[in-house]
């Protein structure tokens, strides 16, 4: 025989089998410890990356800034919790030496909801309340939308807005991809500007 069992004694044979089982147990424990170490390393990396990049795992509440008729402008999501309405602020920066009234008479504004695949689910015109922005100051226009109107949309749109397929069995990483796009479109004499925010589904 090679490196296997050589003794003919039953007691020694049992001892030999016990030694083999002990070796297998030690190997399994080593594998378990290595797996736990790997999980801890990944968890530490995730926490560190999230701390250094706070916006990587959540949707931004602001759109990109664009210059509309000479005024830097961006859309911001209202963080006020309301079960029936969602508010949106259109912030406008006035860096001139004169006060200005917004919206301008040439503006035609529209609010839209789109799916992540670009399907238009909801659209309505916006009638802004006129506001005055002092010189060298920031101002805003406000628009709110009824969530109840979104609940009457077709199922393909509604399920992305309200997370109707939520379940405890769904992967956490899969849920990171869920969401819809809120847009405010401003049409001026020269061109159209689209301000967009990706929102998480409502629960």
Shape: elongated
In terms of DSSP E residues, the strand content is 25-35%
What average pLDDT do the residues reach? Answer: 83
Alpha-carbon Rg, integer: 30 Å
SSE series? HEEEEEEEEHHHEE
Summarize the main sheet: 4 strands, antiparallel
Instruction: Determine the fraction of residues in helical runs and give it as a percent range.
Output: 25-40%
Strand order of the largest sheet: 1-2-3-8
Low-confidence stretches at least 5 residues in length (pLDDT < 50)? 53-57
What is the first-to-last residue Cα distance? 69 Å
Number of helices: 4
Counted beta strands:
10
Structural class: alpha+beta
Q: What's a quick, concise take on this entry?
A:
This protein has 203 residues and is α+β, with helices and mostly antiparallel strands. The protein has helices at 10-52, 147-150, 155-162, 172-175, and strands spanning 66-68, 71-77, 85-94, 100-102, 108-115, 120-126, 131-133, 137-146, 180-187, 192-199. It has a 4-stranded antiparallel beta sheet with strand order 1-2-3-8. A 4-stranded antiparallel beta sheet has the order 6-5-9-10.
